[in-house]
């Protein structure tokens, strides 16, 4: 049985967090920043406040710090809140009409142009409820049952499970650690990612007669790797040699840190544009996944034609409220997004300090993007760290094994939470390990 929260977690950070929890959000808040991203108010949010908001992250494992599902705890950009209120006032929430699809496409195209320098024609951008729906169309129509998709691992969990629902075989290709020992204290030196593609293994997988697809995730959830144009060129060349199509999931593109740059796969060459489907969404960067409006960018005329003939019902399932929220995010959410990214970076630096300090025995490569960290507990001899921390620290993490065979002994951790809660989360984990003499 899972014990309830108690004084056993009463470390310094926990006590500090209890104090911020006591200051409910909204109480004593000073002048709200112009962007609407109120870091001070977020810092004051405690577990009870987040449970009261009622997200999956904070209700699925009651009493636990939610660090598993990829949601952020930072509220909403004011422009999104206003757009949703206005839509309710206008009673404008029927099935998604064509004009809203076109507005989302234009807003998405402008975001791609302004943020990544990709001048994409809005008529190539179509909508679907979420990225997985787009992937499902790709699996059904491009890969096809009885064929295979190659997935670098560790991977975002549904990339391994969803293909199987469509009779598509998954060929896992583990990523390589390039900084030597996969075990303790292997912090990647500056400028070095610490993760690399195993191109030989990828080519062998591409050479399998059944292989038709490749799953690219950039930035890569859960390892936080931001791909270079050279890496993508190599993938594109190998894919061309073996007639493999590329699904490029770029949902985490807004979370790329200094020293790295998001390069959309379809922009690296005409070949790559013809090979790929690009899937994106404002759902991660503005925390609106429940509003259901992702975008697919189809840079190959035949694919666009296929989508129009075969994905009508995917478009129809897209939510009007999502189109409204997404358009507001892309068009008016820029300042909120910049401040939010600064907060995420602050959390990443805190995490990094812990990983260099008390938790230095844990295998860790600082992410280059995303708000997700990959922690390897095999040096400590933990074979089920997610279960261990759930039981002993009341921290809910993703079991690395859900991310592929390469994930045994690892966990995926979402660090997009109030900074004091992140400190409490790490304190609880370290306290549990220390009590067992593991650190
Ligand atoms: C890499 C990746 N792709 C897709 C998704 C799904 O996002 P959505 O349901 O908002 O489309 C997620 C969510 O965490 C993700 O991390």
From TrEMBL:
<dbReference type="Pfam" id="PF00155">
    <property type="entry name" value="Aminotran_1_2"/>
</dbReference>
<dbReference type="InterPro" id="IPR015422">
    <property type="entry name" value="PyrdxlP-dep_Trfase_small"/>
</dbReference>
<keyword id="KW-0456">Lyase</keyword>
<dbReference type="InterPro" id="IPR051798">
    <property type="entry name" value="Class-II_PLP-Dep_Aminotrans"/>
</dbReference>
<comment type="similarity">
    <text>Belongs to the class-II pyridoxal-phosphate-dependent aminotransferase family. MalY/PatB cystathionine beta-lyase subfamily.</text>
</comment>
<dbReference type="InterPro" id="IPR015421">
    <property type="entry name" value="PyrdxlP-dep_Trfase_major"/>
</dbReference>
<dbReference type="GO" id="GO:0008483">
    <property type="term" value="F:transaminase activity"/>
</dbReference>
<keyword id="KW-0663">Pyridoxal phosphate</keyword>
<dbReference type="GO" id="GO:0047804">
    <property type="term" value="F:cysteine-S-conjugate beta-lyase activity"/>
</dbReference>
<keyword id="KW-0032">Aminotransferase</keyword>
<keyword id="KW-0808">Transferase</keyword>
<feature type="domain" description="Aminotransferase class I/classII large">
    <location>
        <begin position="72"/>
        <end position="426"/>
    </location>
</feature>
<protein>
    <recommendedName>
        <fullName>cysteine-S-conjugate beta-lyase</fullName>
        <ecNumber>4.4.1.13</ecNumber>
    </recommendedName>
</protein>
<dbReference type="InterPro" id="IPR015424">
    <property type="entry name" value="PyrdxlP-dep_Trfase"/>
</dbReference>
<dbReference type="GO" id="GO:0030170">
    <property type="term" value="F:pyridoxal phosphate binding"/>
</dbReference>
<dbReference type="InterPro" id="IPR004839">
    <property type="entry name" value="Aminotransferase_I/II_large"/>
</dbReference>
């Amino acid at each position: 049985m899972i014990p309830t929260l108690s004084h056993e977690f009463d470390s310094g950070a926990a006590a500090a967090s209890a104090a911020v929890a006591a200051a409910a959000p909204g109480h004593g808040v000073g002048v709200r920043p112009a962007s609407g991203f109120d870091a001070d108010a977020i810092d004051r949010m405690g577990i009870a406040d987040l449970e009261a908001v009622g997200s999956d992250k904070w209700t699925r494992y009651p009493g636990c710090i939610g660090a598993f599902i990829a949601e952020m705890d930072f509220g909403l950009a004011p422009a999104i809140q206003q757009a949703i209120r206005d839509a309710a006032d206008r009673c404008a929430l029927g099935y998604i009409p064509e004009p809203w699809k076109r507005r989302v496409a234009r807003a998405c195209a402008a975001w791609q142009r302004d943020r990544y320098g990709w001048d994409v024609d809005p008529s190539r951008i179509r909508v679907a409820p979420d990225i997985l729906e787009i992937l499902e169309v790709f699996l059904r129509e491009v890969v096809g049952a009885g064929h295979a998709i190659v997935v670098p691992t560790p991977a975002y969990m549904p990339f391994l499970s969803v293909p199987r629902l469509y009779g598509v075989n998954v060929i896992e290709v583990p990523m390589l650690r390039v900084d030597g020992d996969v075990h303790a204290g292997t912090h990647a030196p500056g400028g070095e990612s610490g993760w690399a593609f195993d191109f030989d293994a990828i080519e062998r997988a591409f050479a399998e007669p059944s292989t038709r697809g490749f799953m690219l995730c950039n930035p890569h959830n859960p390892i936080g790797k931001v791909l270079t144009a050279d890496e993508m060129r190599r993938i594109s060349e190998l894919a061309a040699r073996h007639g493999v199509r590329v699904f490029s999931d770029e949902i985490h593109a807004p979370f790329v840190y200094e020293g790295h740059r998001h390069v959309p796969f379809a922009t690296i060459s005409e070949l790559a544009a013809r090979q790929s489907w690009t899937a994106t969404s404002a759902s991660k960067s503005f925390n609106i996944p429940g509003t259901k409006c992702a975008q697919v960018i189809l840079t190959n005329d035949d694919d666009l034609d296929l989508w129009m003939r075969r994905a009508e019902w995917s478009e129809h399932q897209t939510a009007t409220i999502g189109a409204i929220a997404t358009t507001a995010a892309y068009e008016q959410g820029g300042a909120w997004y910049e401040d939010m990214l600064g907060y995420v970076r602050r959390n990443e630096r805190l995490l990094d300090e812990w990983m260099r300090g008390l938790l230095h025995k844990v295998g860790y490569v600082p992410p280059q993007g995303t708000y997700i960290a990959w922690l390897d507990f095999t040096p400590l001899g933990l074979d089920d760290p997610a279960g261990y921390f759930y039981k002993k620290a009341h921290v809910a993490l993703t079991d690395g094994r859900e991310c592929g065979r390469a994930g045994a002994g690892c966990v995926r951790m979402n660090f997009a939470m109030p900074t004091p809660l992140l400190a409490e989360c790490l304190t609880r984990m370290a306290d549990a390990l220390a009590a067992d003499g593991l650190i």
